[in-house]
Amino acid sequence: MSSPSEDRHPDFGVFMDETRFWVVHRREFYGPFDYQWSIDLRGIEFLYQDKKYGECCSEEEFFADLKQFQLPRRVSQVATIVTGTVVSCIFHCVATSDRIRQISSNLESMGLERYILKVKK
Fold first, then answer.
1. What does the H/E/C string look like for the chain?
2. Is 7 inside any structural domain?
3. Which of 24, 49, 102, 112 could cysteine-pair with 107, CB 3.0–4.6 Å?
């Protein structure tokens, strides 16, 4: 499993690199999660290890199903919050730096503050 390089692997976290991110759960890396614009540029497709697992065509049309990957429930929960926050920020033209704050805030509000967000510089 490809993961971002770190000197010390945390027990829990989220590592972001451009559009990709990895969820760290009990020192295991899951990812990369990513997104890409659909061919017609009217929606966003969600990817896990380059396989489509969902899409969003508008704020009212959001579909994601990670069941096929048999990820731990907490990993799916964190990935869904991060993905949903990123998509919402894209639709509202929120700057990247503000997206990071919003993701952290949403994770904290869901009781997932131990998933510390780190961004590749």
1. CCCCCCCCCCCEEEEEECCEEEEEECCEEEEEEEEEECCCCCCEEEEECCEEEEEEEECCEEEECCHHHCCCHHHHHHHHHHHHHHHHHHHCCCCHHHHHHHHHHHHHHCCCCCCEEEECC
2. no
3. 112
| Tokens linked to 74 | 């907490």
Phi, psi angles (nearest 5°) of residue 91: -65, -25
Residues 10-21 have pLDDT tens digits of 899 999 998 899
**2 within some domain:** no
The model scores a pTM over 0.85:
yes
Q: Does residue 37 form part of some domain?
A: yes
pLDDT tens-digit series, residues 21-38: 999 999 999 999 999 988
Domain count of the fold of the chain: 1
Nearest to 62 by CA among 101, 88, 82, 94: 88
Range of the domain at 65: 12-119
